[in-house]
Amino acid sequence: MPPASDDSSAPDVGELTPPTRTLMGPGPSDVHPRVLRAMSTPLVGHLDPSFIEIMNDVQELLRYAFQTDNQWTIPVSGTGSASMEAAIGNVVEPGDTMLVPTNGYFGGRMASMARRAGGEVVEVDAPWGEPLDPATVSDALAEHDPDVFGFVHAETSTGVRQPNVPELTAAAHDHDALVITDTVTSLGGVELRVDEWDIDVAYSGPQKCLSCPPGASPLTLSDEAMEKVLSREEPSRSWYLDLSLLEGYWGDERAYHHTAPITNVYSIREALRLVAEEGIENRWARHRRLAGALKAGAEGMGLEMNPDDEYWLPSLNAVRVPEGIDDGEVCDELLERYDLEIAGGLGDLAGEIFRIGCMGYSASPENVTLLIAALADVLDDFGADVDPDGGVAACREALR
Ligand SMILES: Cc1ncc(COP(=O)(O)O)c(C=O)c1O
What we know:
The protein is α/β, with parallel strands linked by helices. The protein has helices at residues 33-39, 49-66, 80-91, 105-116, 134-144, 165-174, 223-230, 243-250, 262-278, 280-300, 327-338, 365-381, 388-399; strands at residues 22-23, 72-78, 97-101, 120-124, 148-152, 154-155, 160-161, 178-182, 201-203, 215-221, 316-320, 340-341, 343-344, 353-357. The protein has a seven-stranded mixed beta sheet with strand order 2-10-9-8-5-3-4, sandwiched between helices. The chain has a three-stranded antiparallel beta sheet with strand order 11-14-13, covered by helices on one side. A two-stranded parallel ribbon has the order 1-12. Bound molecules: pyridoxal-5'-phosphate. Residues 26-27, 79-81, 84, 106, 152, 156, 182, 184-185, 205, 214 line the site of pyridoxal-5'-phosphate.
């Protein structure tokens, strides 16, 4: 051990001891121990031959998770927003029109990014808490003739799963628009078939249904989308996220662009290996079963889900806050009493819903049972009109 410093100006900061939480909010989810172990693997250089192999593995595993053969499938260095901005900032050129939805927070973020890319934004409306209606999308496509259509497959702010994806992509392609899909809260947890559904570009994040820390974020582009990116008249406004430059690192050449976040690449490799071991369809089924038990427990205690069953999103359960209850106080109490994280609503649904994640490693019978018992306990103590035993019994029955 080197001698302790006698520099009195050096900050005296204690050891890192965050609390042990159970993460059942909108993300991050609990990280699988195997992924945590992979993160403590010693570094190699970002151009080391062994790392090139690791990059190939990640690309192959990502194609499986996305259900695509797209050659252009990479983990973008950064959080989900980096992957989102890589998608929008490269595909949308100055002067292009992008059609975006108004039915949630992340559609709004798509609009901001498209504007910064120099695009003109037009909107297709649906209320928060509802999916897009294919007929309304078709009308908007006919009216605005956009170059790009973006939508959110799993809207984390509302707990809505967009159904009818093939109908939406077919309508967009009838109008020669490329489709960008936000799959941050669906990849690895909710049925998603990039090729079969004819999605041109899909971006995601690792910290939701992949149960991996944020830092390397999945992105896939079809050849046609990549052709548009590579034939842009002016380069993308971001140097760091310019896919024509990143091609040098993730394509055949494997030349330096930036120092890849090695540890995050290790972690996503392990997280994706877990997806492949379980099988993607089994994984979707597990999320449906465990989130189904969570939903049964919530409904069994007398709570109401916000979205219709038809577009329920297993990875993010939007449960209506009962009459007279403050959502923030419930979230605080769950954290304090049970070390359990859930979240309240955002935007148009602020104060109206709890957002309860059931993602990846967090989608387990133990977590779902704890969540229902703890939520019932806290709501009952706060005087909500709930049946705590009914909730626990319904959850238990659904888990049998
Ligand atoms: C649907 C959706 N899109 C995009 C993002 C942005 O991802 P990040 O927060 O990792 O940058 C999130 C994050 O919660 C999200 O839920």
